[in-house]
């Protein structure tokens, strides 16, 4: 089980790192998207800051996964991003949803795996 967890940890880290670096260097071809998806994505890119900020968070999370440190924190940071990746594809680009679902699935898996780290945060005060 420990080997599987390490494999999944590195796989999620690699996915995030590749997509983050692609936001800066555009080395992977952009899949064909529906008009609505292109319009929305273009508006995010045209802000000049949203996609680089997302990429930086993806890189930070991937570094945490590769190092094996701060994984619980990294998963908490990644969750709103991965949820939005799925929503973007669900509502605007369903044919390309598989990587987003994989990212969210792995994120939820690691959130559950490190659930003890969140115990204090979830206590009612």
Query: Strand portion, in percent?
Result: under 5%
Count of individual domains? 1
What value does the average pLDDT take?
96
Q: What is the number of beta strands?
A: 0
Instruction: Count up the helices.
Output: 5
Most strands sheet: none
- Helix % is over 70%
The N- to C-terminal Cα distance equals: 36 Å
What is the overall silhouette? globular
Oligomer: single chain
The rounded Rg comes to 15 Å
H-E string: HHHHH
Protein structure class: mainly alpha
Runs with pLDDT <50, length 5+? none
Task: Please explain how this structure is put together.
This protein is mainly α. The chain has one domain (2-122). Helix content is 74%, strand content 0%. The chain is built from 5 helices and no strands. The longest helix has 24 residues, at 2-25. It is globular and about 45 Å long.
Helices and strands in order, then pairings?
Layout: H1 2-25, H2 35-46, H3 50-67, H4 71-92, H5 98-113
Helix pairs in contact: 1-3, 1-5, 3-4, 4-5
List keywords for this structure.
125 residues; 5 helices; globular; mainly alpha; 0% strand
Short description:
This protein has 125 residues and is an all-alpha fold.
């Amino acid at each position: 089980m420990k080997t599987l967890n390490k494999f999944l940890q590195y796989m999620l880290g690699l996915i995030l790192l590749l997509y983050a670096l692609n936001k800066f260097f555009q080395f992977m071809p952009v899949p064909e998207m529906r008009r609505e998806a292109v319009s929305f994505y273009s508006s995010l890119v045209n802000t000049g800051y949203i996609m680089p900020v997302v990429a930086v968070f993806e890189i930070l999370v991937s570094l945490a996964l590769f190092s094996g440190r701060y994984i619980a924190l990294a998963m908490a940071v990644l969750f709103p991003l991965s949820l939005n990746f799925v929503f973007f594809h669900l509502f605007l680009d369903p044919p390309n949803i598989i990587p987003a679902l994989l990212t969210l699935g792995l994120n939820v898996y690691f959130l559950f795996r490190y659930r003890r780290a969140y115990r204090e945060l979830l206590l009612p005060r």
